[in-house]
Write a structure and sequence with these properties.
The complex is a heterodimer of chains A (213) and B (501). Chain A has 213 residues and is α+β, with helices and mostly antiparallel strands. Helix content of chain A is 41%, strand content 11%. The relative contact order of chain A is 0.11. The chains are: A alpha+beta (213), B mainly alpha (501). Chain B: Its EC number is 2.3.2.31.
Chain lengths: 213, 501
C-alpha cells in the first residue's frame, strides 16, 4: 500500500504549508477520494472565489494521474461548464510520478490565469473567450460570484449566467416571447447578442422561437 | 457426373487455358497475379535486426555509441533521413530537445550515476513512494528514485513505445539504463513496441492478420497496390508462416471478391453484431486512417494513436481549422436539417425496400456464415493432418512422400472453401439476370466439389484413406478446376458491370 503512505505525506505537506491558498482533505474518510480547494488567482475573473475540486486516486497512483473534476461550476475554456471535467495535459499524458496533488492544484490555479482556448474542453466558452473577451470576463466573474463565493447562491440572472446580452433579451421580450424561451433559443443557436442591424440573425431567432410549442 | 456439369467444366477449362498455363501453381494466383505484388516476408526478429543494423550504420556516420543512436532514432520514429538532416544542422539542438545532451546539466555534474545502494542505517528516501529503500537509480541529471518505483514507471512507459524520460525532467533513458533498472531486457520490449509503431506508421508494412502470427510483410512496389485495387485485382501476399492475406485490406484472402466488395460486405455483416452496435455508439473512425477510436476523456481534440492525425471529435474535421476561427461545428446546420425533414417522407417507402433487401441479405449471409464455420472445422482437421499422415504411414506402411497427398488435399480444400465463402459476398452485390444465373451455376458446382472433398476427410480408418488416395487426388483436381472457374466467373461478372455497390 505504498500509495497510501504517499497520499498521507501529501496531505501533511499541504497542511503544513500555511502560505499556499490550497487545502486538501479526505472526502469520505477514504484515502482514494479527496477534496481539494484553491482560491481564484488575483486579477482574473475568478478572484475572490473558492473552487472545490473532486479528486479520485486510481490504484496505480502515483504512476497514473489523479482523476480531477470541479465540483464548483466554473466558466473557463478548459473546464466543462456542465460536468466540471478538466482538459489539462498534466492530468493526462504529461503526468509523471513526481507531480503531486498539490502541484496539480497549483497547475489548475495557474490555468485560471492563462486559459488555453485553442485546446478547449468547453467549445462554447472557448468561443466566447476568443470572440468577446470582455463579455467572457463578465460572465466568468458572475459565475465566480454565484457559485464560488461564500455568501452562497443568490438570485440567479439567467441571461448573465450564459453571457447573453441583456438588451437583446429585452428586445425579444417586447415581441411577446417569454424570457425563458428566448434564453433557451439563444443558447441553442450559440448567440450571445443580436445587433439591431442584423435582420437575418434576428429572423432566424424569431423563426426558432415560433417553431416551439 | 451430369451433362450439365460436364459442359461447364469444359467451358471453364477453355477459358482458363487462354490466360494461364496449366502448371502446378496455386489456382488463386490466376486472379491475384503474384508477380505484380512484389513483397518481402519478415519476422519480428528480422525487423529488430534490420533496425539494429540501421542504428549501427548511423552510429558510424554520427560517431556516437549504438545505444545513443537507438534512442535518437526512436524519438524520430525511425525516420533516419530527417534525423541526419536535423543532426547535421544543429547537433546540440537535437540532443537538447531529445534529452540526450552530454553537456553538463544546469552547470552541475553528477559523477556517481547508475545503480546506487544504501544501508539500513542510512537508507534512501524515495520521493515517489515516500518510503525508505536500499536500492535506487540515478540518471546524469542527478534525479534519483528507488528501483521499485522506477520499475513500475518503466512498465507503464514501455507500452507507449516512446523514448522514456526521467520522471522529473527531460533527460532520456538509454536502453542501457532501462535494462539495468528492469533487470531484464526491458529495452528490447520497448524496441519491439517501437517496431509495432514503425510497422503501423509505414504503409509499405503490414502485420499478418492471422491470430498469434507475428509475421510482417513488406511490399516493395506499394504505389502499385492502389492501382491493383482500382482494377479489381487483389493484392494477396503470403506471410512467412504461410498465411495468405490481402495487403490492401489487412484481412484474410478474400478471393474472388474484390477489395471494395469485401469492405462493404464486412461492414454490412458487422452492423448486426453487438460489438458493432457498441463501436458505433462509442467510437468514431479516424477520418484519415479509418481506425476505430474510443473517446475516454473529455477533450475533443483527438490525436489518432495510429496515424497521429489530429482532428475534432465533433465535426471530424482537421484540428488545424479549429484554432482561431473558432468551432464551426457547434453551429446548427439549417440546410442539413431541411434535408433530413424531407427524407423522413421517403423513409416509409424505404422501409419496405429495406425489408426485402434484408431477406436477400440474410440468405447470402447465412451461406457465407455456414462456410465460415465449416472453414474453422476444416481447419482444425487440417491442423492435425500431419498426424493423419503419420498414422497412414505407420498403419499401411507407405512412404512419407506417398502420403503427402493428404497435406495437399487439405490445403486445396481450405483455399477452395474460402473462395466459395467469399463468392457469396460477390453474389449479394450482383444484379439479377443472366450473369448472376451463370455465376450461381458455377458457384453450385464449386460448393458441390468442396463438400465432396470435405466428405473424404471424414474417413478415419487409415487403410481406407490409403485405398482412396485416387479419390482424394481426383476430388482435389476437380475442386481446383472449379475454383478456377469461380474466380474467372467473378472476373466476368465484374467486367460485365453487373456488380452494384
Amino acid at each position: 500500500m505504498a500509495r497510501f503512505k504517499r497520499i498521507l505525506k501529501e496531505l501533511d505537506d499541504v497542511k503544513n504549508d500555511k502560505e499556499a491558498s490550497i487545502t486538501l482533505d479526505m472526502a469520505d474518510n477514504e484515502l482514494n477520494h479527496l477534496t481539494g480547494t484553491f482560491i481564484g488567482p488575483p486579477d482574473t475573473p475568478y478572484e475572490g472565489g473558492k473552487f472545490v475540486v473532486d479528486i479520485k486516486i486510481p490504484n496505480e497512483y502515483p504512476f497514473k494521474p489523479p482523476i480531477m473534476k470541479f465540483d464548483t461550476k466554473v466558466y473557463h475554456p478548459n473546464i466543462s461548464s456542465v460536468t466540471g471535467a478538466i482538459c489539462l495535459d498534466i492530468l493526462k499524458d504529461a503526468w509523471t510520478p513526481i507531480l503531486t496533488l498539490k502541484s496539480s492544484l497549483i497547475s489548475l490555479q495557474s490555468l485560471f490565469q492563462s486559459p488555453e482556448p485553442n485546446d478547449p474542453q468547453d467549445a462554447e466558452v472557448a468561443k466566447h473567450y476568443l470572440s468577446d473577451r470582455e463579455g467572457f470576463n463578465k460572465t466568468a466573474r458572475y459565475w465566480t460570484q454565484i457559485y464560488a463565493s461564500d455568501n452562497g447562491e443568490r438570485d440567479v440572472n439567467d441571461a448573465e449566467l450564459y453571457g447573453i446580452d441583456q438588451e437583446t433579451v429585452t428586445n425579444f421580450e417586447t415581441m411577446g416571447f417569454t424570457r425563458e424561451k428566448i434564453i433557451e433559443v439563444l443558447r441553442r443557436l450559440g448567440l450571445k447578442k443580436v445587433e439591431a442591424g442584423e435582420p437575418r440573425t434576428e429572423n432566424k431567432v424569431i423563426e426558432e422561437l415560433l417553431k416551439e410549442d | 457426373m451430369s451433362d450439365e456439369e460436364f459442359e461447364y467444366t469444359d467451358d471453364s477449362d477453355s477459358l482458363y487455358s487462354d490466360s494461364v498455363d496449366d502448371d502446378n501453381f496455386k489456382i488463386e494466383d490466376s486472379l491475384v497475379k503474384h508477380d505484380i505484388v512484389q513483397y518481402k516476408q519478415h519476422t519480428t526478429r528480422e525487423m529488430m535486426e534490420t533496425l539494429h543494423k540501421k542504428c549501427t550504420k548511423l552510429s558510424e556516420v554520427l560517431g556516437k555509441p549504438h545505444d545513443y543512436v537507438v534512442t535518437l532514432l526512436q524519438s524520430y520514429k525511425w525516420n533516419s533521413e530527417k534525423l541526419i538532416e536535423d543532426y547535421m544542422d544543429d547537433p546540440q539542438d537535437v540532443e537538447l530537445r531529445l534529452g540526450l545532451s552530454t553537456v553538463k546539466l544546469n552547470g552541475e555534474h553528477h559523477e556517481n550515476t547508475g545503480l546506487q545502494t544504501y544501508t539500513e542505517e542510512a537508507p534512501f528516501s524515495c520521493f515517489i513512494c515516500c518510503e525508505d529503500k536500499l536500492e535506487s537509480y540515478k540518471l546524469k541529471c542527478g534525479h534519483e528514485f528507488c528501483l521499485d518505483c522506477y520499475r513500475t514507471y518503466l512498465n507503464e512507459k514501455v507500452k507507449q513505445a516512446n523514448v522514456i524520460k526521467c520522471p522529473s525532467c527531460d533527460v532520456a533513458l538509454t536502453p542501457g539504463d532501462i535494462d539495468t533498472i528492469s533487470g531484464t531486457n526491458g529495452s528490447s520490449v520497448l524496441l519491439e513496441n517501437s517496431i509495432k509503431e514503425y510497422v503501423e506508421r509505414h504503409k509499405t508494412y503490414k502485420w499478418c492478420p492471422s491470430p498469434d502470427c507475428n509475421a510482417i510483410v513488406e511490399v516493395l512496389n506499394s504505389s502499385d497496390i492502389a492501382h491493383l485495387v482500382d482494377t479489381n485485382q487483389i493484392p494477396i501476399v503470403i506471410c512467412s508462416n504461410g498465411h495468405r492475406f490481402c495487403f490492401n485490406c489487412g484481412f484474410e484472402s478474400h478471393v474472388p471478391a474484390p477489395c471494395n466488395v469485401t469492405k462493404q460486405w464486412i461492414n454490412k455483416c458487422k452492423d448486426d453484431s453487438e460489438t458493432v452496435k457498441w463501436i458505433t455508439t462509442h467510437t468514431k473512425t479516424c477520418p484519415k486512417c479509418d481506425t476505430s477510436i474510443e473517446k475516454n476523456g473529455g477533450c475533443n481534440h483527438m490525436t489518432c494513436r495510429k496515424c497521429a492525425y489530429e482532428f475534432c471529435w465533433i465535426c471530424l474535421g482537421t484540428w488545424d481549422n479549429h484554432n482561431n476561427q473558432y468551432y464551426q461545428c457547434n453551429r446548427y446546420q439549417y440546410e442539413q436539417a431541411e434535408k433530413n425533414n424531407k427524407s423522413a417522407k421517403d423513409k416509409k417507402l424505404q422501409d419496405e425496400a429495406t425489408k426485402k433487401s434484408l431477406q436477400r441479405y440474410l440468405h447470402y449471409y447465412n451461406l457465407f456464415n455456414i462456410h465460415e464455420i465449416s472453414t474453422k472445422q476444416d481447419k482444425s482437421r487440417c491442423d492435425v493432418v500431419e498426424n493423419t499422415v503419420r498414422e497412414v504411414q505407420e498403419g499401411v506402411g507407405i512412404s512419407w512422400i506417398e502420403a503427402q497427398f493428404l497435406v495437399d488435399s487439405a490445403s486445396t480444400l481450405l483455399n477452395a472453401r474460402r473462395v466459395l465463402k467469399w463468392s457469396y459476398a460477390v453474389a449479394f452485390y450482383c444484379d439479377r439476370g443472366y450473369s448472376l444465373d451463370l455465376f450461381e451455376t458455377v458457384q453450385a458446382g464449386l460448393a458441390d466439389a468442396v463438400e465432396a472433398l470435405s466428405l473424404l476427410f471424414e474417413i478415419s480408418d487409415v487403410e481406407v484413406i490409403a485405398k482412396k488416395k485416387l479419390n482424394f487426388l481426383n476430388a482435389s483436381k476437380l475442386l481446383e478446376d472449379r475454383q478456377r472457374a469461380m474466380v474467372l466467373a467473378t472476373e466476368e461478372t465484374i467486367n460485365n458491370g453487373t456488380l452494384r455497390l
